Amino acid sequence: MYGARAVLKEVVEAAPRADVRVIVVWLPMVETDNAKAAREAARMFRDERVTQFYDPQRLLGLAFPRDVFPNCIHDALRATPPEHPFHADLQAWAESPPDQQVMWDAVLFYDRNGEWGERPPKPRRWSKQVAFFENAGPGEPTATFFHNDCKAPPVDSDWHIEVRNGLQAIAR
User: Fold this and answer.
1) Which residues pair with 126 in a beta bridge?
2) What is the DSSP string of 95-141?
3) What is the pLDDT of residues 95-122, one digit of tens each?
4) What global pTM score does this model have?
5) Of the N and C termini of the chain, which has fewer Cβ atoms inside 10 Å?
6) Taking the CA atoms of the chain, what radius of gyration do you get in angstroms?
């Protein structure tokens, strides 16, 4: 939800005339995620540039690790030092069955001429949240992200920064 709010603020509200399309895909990842919750969350987007879907079987979330980022989890594990606070979680994720390796809490940026076929295309820029800091203070990072390179360790950042940087990269 924090990522969706950042997209709303940094793309939809900050650039009301920008020639962009926003696609939001809601996935059921925690117990409270369901079609009703997705419909309620979807109300925040009242812009014709936004198209939303609810993916109850998490098909798109499974397609990205399988088809676009097939080695990302293992590359990220090798890039993340064992003493990093996220290393153990990443190890567990890497050892989980493929049907549990879902990409969610992510934002992906494409050029306007990117073509979608049977498999999703590789995004030009992307960010994937892997940890959330519940008690972050003003101006402090709110989460840990992998972005743009699975072979680099995760970094502490904020959804607003991640969305803003991705949007700026594709606007060039």
Assistant:
1) 108
2) HS-GGG----SEEEE--TT----SSPPPPSEEEEEEEE-TTPPTTS-
3) 999 889 999 999 999 988 878 888 899 9
4) 0.89
5) C
6) 16
- What residues contact residue 6 under an 8 Å CB cut-off, 6+ apart? 107, 158, 159, 160, 162, 163
Task: Say how far apart CA 124 and CA 152 lie, in whole Å.
Answer: 16
Instruction: List pLDDT tens digits, range 155-170.
Output: 999 999 999 999 888 8
The gap between the terminal CA atoms of the chain, to the nearest Å, is 27
**Pairwise CA distance, residues 148 & 74, whole Å:** 15
Residue (of 16, 119, 14) closest to 65 by Cα position: 119
Q: Two tokens at 29?
A: 């990842």
**Side chain identity, residue 38:** A
- Kindly state the DSSP code that residue 145 receives in the 8-state scheme: E
